[in-house]
Specification:
The chain has 540 residues and is of the alpha/beta class. The chain has 4 domains: 166 residues, Rossmann fold (3-Layer(aba) Sandwich), CATH 3.40.50; 135 residues, Rossmann fold (3-Layer(aba) Sandwich); 65 residues, Luciferase, Domain 3 (Luciferase, domain 3, Roll), CATH 2.30.38; 125 residues, ANL, C-terminal domain (GMP Synthetase, Chain A, domain 3, 2-Layer Sandwich), CATH 3.30.300. 33% of the residues lie in helices and 25% in strands. It contains 18 helices and 29 strands. Strands 2-1-12-11-13-14-15-16 form an 8-stranded mixed beta sheet, with helices on both faces. A hairpin with a 3-residue loop joins β26 and β27. α2 packs across α3 and α5 packs across α6. The C terminus is likely disordered.
């Protein structure tokens, strides 16, 4: 451990630490520009001073709406050293969805990239508490140019650095996004633990991490940006994922580390053999993956290709669970890792009572030792997640006799498509506003490339007739009100939907029916239709 690094991280000054020791080493490489550690550090200081000039101080919230580019990193670094609370927002959302998050996180400032300017402008009009609006990479009506705001500010070290926090939003299974909040002390402890452990062996000035996913997601932000930069590694940003481009960048930049999701494994393996052989992947030392279950044959084939350098974790925005390396996984295919120390993760019933080995139940994680997370302004959701000092995300699985965790389902209702979480109740809510829809239930069904795709099962009003034309109309209707990646790929019509006495839908009944190889979803004729749109953010 380099001397003084932990103390620097405690103050949100990890980047400054490396700016002093390797100022000319590239910190960020991207199509939108590069930054050395010294340049990135100075720009973050300028942004802090620009925000302070506009009245923002410790504890205030900033919303960030931007694809992967150097300015995104500058905003993250500025928040980390100034006591601000940063919320990166999924820029694929609609203006209404963005406005909800911006309002809910109590943002006083929005920083947005011009390519999503129309959404940012419309969202800003719905968020009267926002007093500062900065536009990156071009003009947005009503926004000040980001570079103009920074130009008059000093890039010198701050006299009073103070660790800030990041509050990401997760849809979970309840539909409405929820902010996952941790106090500064908890964020500090997590950062110190990660840097002290350096689990992936980053070497300052030598390691190069390829960031393949959008930084508004927890995994890319933590594993592909915050940790490698804190360890003095270079980060290569992709803004839009492509299989062959991934191989090209690994070879061109001698990438040592990267983070992928199972869909990416699938697409990389699907490349022609001569394409895969064209690129030298010999520099790769660590491939991290998580975000969604990975089919055993896909992961085994990927390990056979790149070697035993694949490391899986089980985690969510709310907290880390387990890790497993390649050799351990190959010995126990399908495991997401051994619980260590024993008892930190348990499998139990709805009330949290522990179950025995191989008994399937809810997975409970021990609350972080430095402080429990909470759902921002949602005491009911927070209480529902916890059972004493443990919390559950609704994931289902079991522990074997040796304490290895296996997941049998990733949440009862949640749809995970391409590593992206989709709350079915949010889609249902939109469909139920269509005049032809009497009832609706959205589920995830298997997709060989994306893991799952969104299927809407609809009961029509008496005056309406199920038809391919109506199915198309319903898909288009969803695209008018939801981000594209949330919308159904297909619609199936039924006479009635199974509901419990309390009004809740029996989604498991529907999943069992439509996931069956010989079930209704196997027949693509009749009243089913596929959407030609494909707006999943893991592609963008």
């Amino acid at each position: 451990m380099p001397p003084g690094l932990v103390d620097a991280v405690r103050q949100g000054q990890g980047l400054t630490y490396w700016a002093r020791r390797q100022p000319d080493t590239l910190a960020i490489v991207s199509d939108a520009g590069d930054r050395t550690f010294a340049e990135l550090d100075a720009r973050a200081n300028q942004l802090v001073r620009a925000l302070r000039r506009r009245g923002l101080g410790p504890g205030d919230s900033v919303a960030l709406l931007s694809p992967n580019r150097p300015e995104f990193v500058e905003v993250v670094a500025a928040a980390q050293r100034s006591g601000l609370r940063l919320t990166p927002v999924n820029w694929h959302l609609t203006a209404d969805e963005v406005a909800y998050v911006v309002n809910d996180c109590d943002a006083r400032a929005i920083v947005a990239e011009a390519s999503v300017g129309a959404v940012a402008e419309a969202a800003a009009a719905r968020t009267p508490a926002v007093t500062t609006r900065l536009a990156i990479g071009g003009a947005i009506a009503g926004f000040t140019a980001y570079d103009t705001a920074l130009a008059t500010e000093s890039g010198d070290d701050l006299e009073d650095p103070r660790l800030g926090t990041t509050m990401l939003y997760t849809s979970g299974t309840t539909g409405r996004p929820k902010g996952v909040y941790r106090p500064t002390e908890a964020a500090q402890a997590i950062a110190v633990i990660a840097v002290s452990a350096n689990p992936y062996g980053y070497e300052p000035g030598r390691s190069v991490h390829l960031c393949t996913g959008p930084l508004y997601h927890a995994a890319p932000l933590s594993f592909s940006l915050s940790l490698p930069l804190a360890m003095g590694a270079t980060v290569v940003l992709m803004n839009g994922w492509d299989a062959e481009s991934t191989l090209r960048l690994i070879a061109a930049h001698r990438v040592t580390h990267t983070h992928l999701v199972p869909t990416m494994f699938h697409r990389l393996l699907a490349l022609p053999d001569d394409t895969r052989r064209r690129y030298d992947l010999g520099s790769l030392q660590h491939v991290m993956h998580g975000a969604a279950p990975c089919p055993i044959p896909v992961k085994r084939a990927f390990i056979e290709w790149v070697g035993p350098i694949v490391h899986e974790y089980y985690a969510a925005t709310e907290g880390i669970g387990t890790f497993v390396d390649s050799s351990t996984w190959l010995a126990r295919p399908g495991t997401v890792g051994k619980v260590h120390p024993p008892g930190r993760i348990t499998v139990g019933d709805e009330d949290g009572n522990s179950l025995g080995p191989h008994e399937v139940g809810l997975v409970y994680l021990e609350a972080p030792p430095a402080g429990r997370f909470s759902y921002y302004k949602s005491d009911d959701a927070t209480s529902a997640a916890y059972r004493g000092d443990r919390f559950t995300l609704g994931d289902v699985g079991y522990l074997d006799d040796d304490g290895f965790l296996f997941l049998t389902d990733r949440s009862a209702d949640l749809i995970i498509s391409g590593g992206v979480n989709i709350a079915p109740s949010e889609v249902d809510a939109v469909l139920l506003t269509h005049p032809a829809v009497a009832d609706a239930a959205t589920i995830g069904v298997p997709n060989p490339e994306w893991g799952e795709e969104v299927l809407a099962i609809v009961q029509v009003e008496a005056a309406a007739e199920p038809s391919p034309a109506l199915a198309t109309e319903l898909v288009d209707f969803c695209h008018q009100h939801l981000a594209g990646f949330k919308c159904p790929r297909r619609v199936e019509f039924v006479d009635h939907l199974p509901r419990q006495d309390n009004g809740k839908i029996y989604r498991r009944v529907l999943r069992d029916r439509y996931r069956s190889p010989d079930g209704p979803a196997a027949d693509r004729g009749g009243d089913a239709i596929g959407s030609t749109r494909d707006d999943r953010p893991s592609q963008r």
